Amino acid sequence: MAERARLGVRRAAALLGSALAGALLIGVLFAPSPPLRAHPKRIEVRFWHMWTAEWKVVVDRIVERFNQSQDEYEVVALSVPASSADSKFLLAVVGGDPPDVMTQWNPVIPTWAESGMLTPLDELMSKEEWSTFERTAYPVAKKIGTYRGKLYGLAVGVNLWAAYYRIDALQEAGLDPERFPTSLEGLVAWGEKLDRFDAQGNLTRLGFLPSWLGLYAPMFGGGFYDWQKGQLTLDTDANRRALSFLVERRSRLGLDKVTRFDSAQNAGSGIEWPFMTGAYAIAADGQWRVEQLARYAPELRYGVAPIPPPQGGKEHAGWSSGNFMIVPRGAKQARGAWQFMKYWSGLENPERAAEFYTWGGWLPSFPAVAAAPAFQTYLQKYPQFRCFVELMPSENWETAAPVPYQVYLADREAAADQLASRGVLTPAAALAALEQQAREELVRRRRLGFAD
Q1: What are the φ/ψ torsions at residue 236 (nearest 5 degrees)?
Q2: Directed axis angle between helix 334-345 and helix 350-360, to 10°?
Q3: What is the C-alpha to C-alpha distance for residues 382 and 304, in angstroms, rounded to an integer?
């Protein structure tokens, strides 16, 4: 298995090329020092993660709680810079000294699992634990960690997207916030009423502009992967309808006007978010914005609703990602790692874990965590967050296609979206080119001996 892992690292390095080589050097030169032990007589479980600043404080609190909950293991957490986390992991695996557990949010599972670098979690779970996970975990939480029918990542935080709307803007336009549209067509009609322009015809406020094919394609019945057949679905009728719809909405306002407006906005976090500043009346974004709004704009009156599908489309559909925990092959304390993972995730004790999710403002992987008293109290404090929780049970959330060339495919998908949105290619031509690029990449990988 060690030789297979080494081969996997060499193959991954070949794919990433010179960029990985530079990152590897950074990981060696600037790796943080290992933390000091608080319980040196216990079995050490080394835990790497990529959170920093206030998020690192939350992670450290969870680690401390786990260490206080038992006396066999001591989880020792290390925050690794996101820019070098992947390369540091690869170096550790090839050097035979990986962490015992790592939290990731990059698209790494297919490549690392195919290279033999990850432990399938069913090898660590008891039959009862596996049954509980299969029976109770939200569908999207299963997708996030699954590759070729095996679970390699346990999600400890799921990201979903919904529609944020400013009540002041809606009321000014004569729209009823209590009667949010139930179709995408109705929502874009609202957007037209909410658009504002200056005397020269330049956009000063964007009512609502759907964009990002990955988010909207599932609503049209599309997406980039068929989980039943285990194959990519790129140049399809549903995806063409979705991309054509997005392009038409952008062109309605004028590509130049939208581009100038977009370039003047800052899509950053906190107070810089255009929705918060009033530049957007309705915006599609993730659940993390709820706490940001409470912190930076506590007086702002707003609501959150599911992004409605087009007529005849799929409800409660869209794109999802998340934070997930993995156990590398060669981990010295895989059993201790699993004890920590099920403690944090809530698989073992949902009511206890619910408090952790309120600290981070995360969406849990299990309904029992969301139903626990601590999390329900959190929802009372942040009622807009409830919309995201109610979206979690849907089967219609899609994640990154689980193929070993996941990063390459995501880059090509984004490029096709941009080329069509900017009028360089028609939607049909952009998706046809994407399909062709995926075929060529598959041929190239087969020629080099990589897995499909």
Answers
A1: -120, 165
A2: 80
A3: 11
H helix or E strand, kind and range, residue 377: helix 373-381
DSSP 84: T
The rounded percent of the chain whose pLDDT value lies above 70 is: 92
- Give residue 418's Cα distance to chain centre: 20
Domains along the sequence of the chain with CATH: 2-159+321-398 (3.40.190.10), 161-209+240-309 (3.40.190.10)
Query: What's the average model confidence in pLDDT over 153-167?
Result: 98
Could you give the CA distance from residue 77 to residue 63 in angstroms, rounded to a whole number?
7
Contact 274, 266 (CB under 8 A): yes
List of E strands, 124-195: 146-147, 150-151, 154-159, 161-166
pLDDT at 237 over 90: yes
CA–CA gap between residue 432 and residue 152 (Å, rounded): 32
Give pTM, 2 decimals: 0.90
Q: What does the alpha-carbon distance between residue 233 and residue 225 come to, in Å, rounded to a whole number?
A: 5
In the three-class reduction of DSSP (H, G, I as helix; E, B as strand; rest coil), residue 402 is classed as: coil
Model pLDDT, residue 51: 96
Alpha-carbon 422 to chain mean position: 25
Radius of gyration from C-alpha coordinates of the chain: 23
Nearest-5° angle of CA 249, CA 250, CA 254? Answer: 120
In terms of DSSP bridges, do strands 321-326 and 154-159 run parallel, antiparallel, or are they unpaired? Answer: antiparallel
Using one digit for the tens of pLDDT, what is the confidence trace for 341-380?
Answer: 999 999 999 999 999 999 999 999 999 999 999 999 999 9
Q: What are phi and psi of 99, to 5 degrees?
A: -65, 165
Question: Which tops the pLDDT comparison, 89 or 264?
Answer: 89
Asked whether the beta carbons of 283 and 164 are under 8 A apart, the reply is yes
